[in-house]
Amino acid sequence: MANKNRQLKEAKVAEIKEKLEKAQGVVLAQYQGLSVEEDTELRKSLREAGIEYKVYKNTLVTLAAKELGLDGIVEYLEGPVSIAFGYEDATAPARVLNTFASTHKKMELKAGIVDGTVYDQEQVKVLATIPSKEVLIAKLLGSFKAPLSNLAYLLNAIAEKKQETAAE
After folding, report:
1. Do residues 71 and 140 both lie within one domain?
2. Contacts of 93 (CB under 8 A, 6+ apart)
């Protein structure tokens, strides 16, 4: 019986390790005091953003984090802690949880991990202000487009001017 229990715990630790390794961004949050409706609303918004949301035993997360060299996260694993894993966008978990926490005072961001770096609560709030990769790419392309459009307009005006001059 004890052996089976140990195997289950080892499997859970392996699962947590895999999720921590695979995720581009991870955010730990304290969720105690949320109503069922609030929790359902939170899970729906996370799911829509492509974020996996789990609650694990802190001791199992601690073991997984230490095995991955993420010892800095261990100090935040006290009390009821939920974990949001973002696999596509590193800042998405911070954005979604921060937005939710701004209207639900019982939700509290604790810490986060992006690319193996551990961030505290204030740094996670800063991460939440970073737009998604798609938005950043769109802004970059937009900044390229404006000068190119101006250049095309200028070249077209020069060509029209030359045609007018040649016609006279």
Report:
1. no
2. 25, 26, 27, 46, 51, 84, 85, 86, 112
**Secondary-structure percent of the chain, ordered helix, strand, coil, rounded to 5:** 60, 15, 20
The verdict on 105 and 42 lying in the same domain is yes
* Structure token digits, residue 90: 């590193």
Q: What does the block give as tokens for 146?
A: 């404006």
Measured CA to CA, the distance from residue 60 to residue 10 in angstroms comes to 8
The answer to whether 73 and 113 are in contact (CB under 8 A) is yes
Q: How many domains in the chain?
A: 2
Q: What is the per-residue pLDDT across 56-115, written as a single tens digit (0 to 9) for each?
A: 999 999 999 999 988 888 899 998 899 999 998 888 899 999 999 888 888 889 999 888
Q: Which residue has the tokens 């609030």?
A: 38
For residues 119 and 103, what is the distance between their CA atoms, to the nearest angstrom? Answer: 22
Domain of residue 53 covers 2-130
How far CA 60 is from CA of 10, 64, 130, 167, in Å, comes to 8, 6, 31, 82
Q: Are residues 68 and 10 both part of a single domain?
A: yes
